[in-house]
Write a structure and sequence with these properties.
421 residues; alpha/beta; Spore Coat Polysaccharide Biosynthesis Protein SpsA, Chain A; Rossmann fold; eight-stranded mixed sheet; globular
């Protein structure tokens, strides 16, 4: 069994079968396993993480990689199936035999392969790895299609000294596995060790079905940086993963950090959706000060904010005037986008119900409050923890600004990389 590292430094002459795959004549499928009976976190795979269903993060990366002929979710649960389809995946309804607590990933993938005999290469992507990016799977798959590997899996470099476990009362002494205590190295003097991070496992059909292995034959590993190596098993992992994915997650092809204009539906987003009547018969609404500050934060970072509704608002600190739109906001707001010579990818949009769906789909970055109906949640790219009128706008504003910070950091890194050539 040969094991080789990840690096691909140029075109190689691949076996004939692999060249056929590279020419697109074979079929490469991504398969995400998402059983409904998770023991650690109930329905973990569709629980919201940073405004997106957990499984949505890896599905978006898989679809946008443009490397797969098909992207599948293997599940036994109706709600997971609905979410999977809303994110562009096909669904493999797994049998009861491979849906038990004792069922292995290999058994489920082999069942999928038997039902899809045209599939030549399978990539098992784990739903619990939300910081996966398209370039990760693209570069790993090229190790199979261009370099002739039979299996490739993701790893991360760890700098941890490992010691033997001893049972209490055994009288046995512990000893190090990977450390000479007399010459304890500094971190910068030690390369560390490669550990599986569980993000993905590629394997050829022959390896899976004829040898019964996910890792075998000519094995290669793909090293991912630690910031992208996130795994979620229990509830305590969730808040840490949420912060990590907000900073290092993949948010789609259209980078939200280029947002220059934000539209926000006042009713249900900036307000709780209630209208108060004054003694003189005037309509009034209340605005949370945190949401008002969120709007001012956006304006301070040169993001123009357009508020729209069919009711008047008296808070001049938030909106000197409101745009009035019809039953289909897109018809009116597209005129504003065109007038400012922008595209919808430059726009952030916050809505909260069915009339907002088209704009939520169009905008480069879109969000709904946490109490929005399902039809709006399914169309949005981000679902807030906060509800309408109680901090949702502030949360979305902070999310937009975080993406701008990421963009600046990436641009700086790109300049450094380009200057090195």
């Amino acid at each position: 069994m040969d094991t080789v590292c990840l690096k691909y430094d140029g075109p190689l002459v691949a076996p004939k079968q692999q060249q056929i795959r590279a020419d697109g004549k074979g079929h490469t499928a991504a398969v995400i396993l998402a059983r409904g009976g998770s023991k650690g976190i109930p329905l973990k795979n569709i629980k919201m993480l940073a405004g997106v269903p957990l499984i949505g993060w890896v599905l978006r990366a898989a679809v946008d990689s443009d490397m797969f002929d098909s992207v599948w979710v293997s599940t036994d649960h109706d709600e997971i199936e609905k979410v999977a389809k809303s994110w562009g995946a096909k669904v493999h309804r797994r049998s009861a035999e491979v849906s038990r607590d004792s069922s292995s990933s290999l058994e489920t993938i082999q069942e999928f392969a038997r039902l899809n005999p045209d599939v030549d290469v399978i990539c098992h992507i784990q739903a619990t790895s939300p910081c996966l990016h398209p370039h990760h799977v693209k570069e790993a798959l090229e190790m199979i299609t261009l370099q002739g590997f039979d299996s490739v899996f993701s790893v991360v470099r760890r700098h941890q000294f490992r010691w033997k476990e001893v049972k209490k009362g055994s009288g046995e002494m512990t000893k190090p596995f990977n450390l000479d205590t007399a010459n304890r190295p500094r971190r910068q003097d030690w390369d560390g060790e490669l550990c599986e991070n569980g993000s993905f496992y590629f394997a050829t059909r022959d390896l899976l079905m004829n040898k019964g292995l996910m890792q075998g034959g000519k094995i290669g590993y793909y090293e991912m940086l630690p910031e992208y190596s996130v795994d979620i098993d229990v509830d305590i992992d969730w808040p840490v993963a949420e912060q990590r994915v907000l900073r290092y997650g993949y948010f789609g092809r259209d980078t939200p950090e280029v947002v220059r204009l934000m539209f926000c539906n006042v009713s249900g987003c900036l307000t709780e959706g209630r209208i108060f009547l004054s003694v003189s018969g005037e309509d009034m609404v209340s605005v949370n000060t945190r949401d008002a500050m969120g709007i001012r934060m956006l304006k301070g970072e040169e993001v123009e904010v357009g508020l729209f509704n069919c009711v008047e608002m008296n808070s001049v600190h938030v909106a000197p005037r409101l745009m009035e739109v019809g039953e289909e906001p897109q018809n009116d707001l597209k005129l504003v986008v065109e007038k400012k010579k922008l595209e919808w990818k430059d726009v952030a949009y916050m809505g909260n119900d069915k009339p907002d769906v088209n704009c939520l789909n169009l905008a480069g970055l879109s969000a709904v409050p946490g109490d929005a109906p399902t039809v709006a949640i399914n169309a949005a790219k981000y679902t807030c923890h906060k509800v309408g009128g109680l901090g949702a706008v502030r949360e979305f504003a902070e999310h937009i600004l975080l993406q701008k910070q990421k963009a600046k950091a990436q641009m700086k890194q790109d300049r450094i990389d380009n200057s090195s050539f």
